[in-house]
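TL;DR need structure tokens for one chain.
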Amino acid sequence: MENLQSEDEVLENGTDMHMIDLQRDANRQISDLKFKLAKSEQEITTLEQNVIRLEGQVARYKCAAENAEKIEDELKAEKRKLQRELRSALDKTEELEVSNGHLVKRLEKMKANRSALLSQQ
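>> reply
TL;DR here they are.
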């Protein structure tokens, strides 16, 4: 009977030790998971801050791009206006050169006629 009782104690002590080991493992796993959870929450916070920062940058870049497009459109309109003015000025210059050429020819004819009249007198 004593033998049976000591076997039960050994089994009970072995089971107790096994339960203690299981409890330690469970506690270690809980600690590891708590640490991983805290680390993940910290990472999430960091990522959320990055998202906010990047959204701000996107808004600023979008605003800058819109302003640049507006300026580009204004510059294109100014360029078209200046090109029209240049064409107009070049046309006017050509017209004046042609008119000047005709006037020079008329003046030469008048001088020639005058010289001819003077020589006849």
